[in-house]
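Attaching the record inline, Q. Sequence:
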Amino acid sequence: MLTDQIADMFTRIRNAIKARKRTVNVPASNIKKEITRILFENHFISKYAYVDDGKQGIIKILLKYDEQMQSAIQGIKKVRSCLKIISSANTPMSTTGNRGSSRSCSNTMSRCRTLFRGLKK
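Structure, as predicted:
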């Protein structure tokens, strides 16, 4: 069975935020490590660490909340099969999914970097 590993990662993060969990564990891959690094650099998460478990590894993510337990990530939405939108508290979610938009994210990391830069607080 084929699965979208990036969508699974974002679903795990979304579910952890809804349950007000402090941490979430995601099976590691190179692209997920890069996405996690970008989330950290743009202040969407507090910390992250790669744990080698002898298999593929695990990325442990410490989610970021304010004093009122509001997450730095206010919404994650799958717009199309290759586009993800992440919204911070001060940035409305865009659902247009235009390929040229600074808020769109395709499978290339350069577009992901553009997305997160546009959403930076």
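The radius of gyration is 14 Å. Confidence is low (pLDDT under 50) at residues 92-108.

More tomorrow.
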